[in-house]
Amino acid sequence: MSVGSSEKPPVNRAKFATNLGVLAATLGSAVGLGNIWKFPYLTGSNGGAAFLLVYIICMLLIGIPVMVSELTLGRAARSNAIATMQKLSPARQPWWLIGAAGVLAAFLIMAFYSEVAAWVFAYIFKAIQGGILSTDPEVTKSAFNGLVGNPTQSLIWQWIDLAVVGFIILLGVNKGIESATKKLMPILLGLLILVGIRSITLPGAGQGLTFLFQPDFTKLTAASFLIAMGLAFFKLSVGMGTMITYGSYFRDDQDIPGTAFRVAFSDLAVSLLAGIAIFPAVFAFGYQPNAGPSLLFLTIPSVFASMPLGNIFMVIFFILTAIASIGAQISLVEVPVAFLEEKFHLSRQKASIITVLSIVLVGSLAALSNSTLADVKLFGMTFFDLFDYTTSNILLPLGGLFIAIFISWIWGYKKLSAALSNNGQLSNQGIIKVFYGTLLVVTPVLVTIVLLNGLKIIQ
Ligand code: PFF
């Protein structure tokens, strides 16, 4: 049953088939390059353990409550992000703009995300050829720079990635999204544990663990609070309607708060595993923790170079990372695809093709940011950095802020409580009250302060 919506949900709308499938698809959206590529490099550039702590606080007080809100709204309206906000808001109030900003964010994130996925795809082939396996920072750096500095390679690998994502999206919700993500997550986890064990047994690894787990609060700035909050949004795929869209495929008996907690903590575990795989190696081999977006691509080949059968494991590692990135990309692309399908009555094929081709266009700006367009800067950033920065640190927090305000202040406690308890079938009144209070005050206040402070609007 739809809660709080005056319109009846469409009868034939797709739904995830099983509760495990729901968990896998939602987790498949959260877990991706954010854990394996972004989390380590941002933690490395923002001082390590203290940043990690701020990130966890943002996850608890902002990320999880917004995820619960989005899933709830999506399931209540059973629509794409824009139509959900339209259906559930009082007449003539423009809350649908949140959904529209989400569709824009999906394109901008896909533009740079598909390029990082492109590097991962390229590394699978580099690993097969054997040239990148080295503990020498000079060798791994020149391999990475050679790839990102080459416009043809950057574009072609991005197109390959987008072709794979487009194909899975075309298959639809159940066959494509659900079945692909369910099988692959556990294998990735196993391999990350293996890399982690090798990394912490390297000589000199202790420094890396200290960096990751012993906080030094003097390293925190207003900017690092903003970046930690942005990472929490990005990691949990919230603030832009992805979870509204996925929530619209949720079953009526799904426990939404329970699912959100499980997804968030499993996601955190994957990020920590990636950190444990990378930081000991950073210090053992003499890399810089603040190397930026290249960090993963420099350190991982060195870890594998120092273990038996390293090359084979490295090939598998990058294949699984590519697969994890695809789960996340599918959820990003699903936001505009669901919108185009429902708004303009397009077939899934047409909606998918239009979306992917548009991403190819915007994405080429990000793909060429280290080569042809390296000198083109807006606000001092390349297109790649600009798309990355503005989505995580501005668009997603703003989306999350308004979603929190909408569900607590406008939709209200009664509807929220009915939706989160599955109309009284779950006995989770205590947790519902905690969520309500958090969404009413804590989340909006925190997001506002961190945003204004981090963007230097107030100091
Ligand atoms: N959560 C994904 C990751 O960490 O890789 C990225 C992402 C997916 C962000 C979907 C936003 C989104 F809507």
Automatic annotation (TrEMBL):
A Gene Ontology cellular-component term: membrane
Location(s), subcellular: Membrane
Give the domain of life: Bacteria
* Segments passing through the bilayer: 16-37, 49-73, 94-113, 155-173, 185-205, 225-247, 268-287, 351-374, 394-413, 434-455
Q: Which GO terms describe its molecular function?
A: symporter activity
Q: Which family does it belong to?
A: Belongs to the sodium:neurotransmitter symporter (SNF) (TC 2.A.22) family.
User: This protein is called what?
Assistant: Transporter
Subcellular location, principal: membrane
What keywords is this UniProt entry annotated with? Membrane, Symport, Transmembrane, Transmembrane helix, Transport
- Pfam families listed in its UniProt record: SNF
| InterPro entries reported for this sequence | Na/ntran_symport, SNS_sf, YocR/YhdH-like
Give a yes or no for keyword rRNA-binding in this entry: no
Its topology with respect to the membrane?
Multi-pass membrane protein
Which species is the source of this protein? Leptolinea tardivitalis
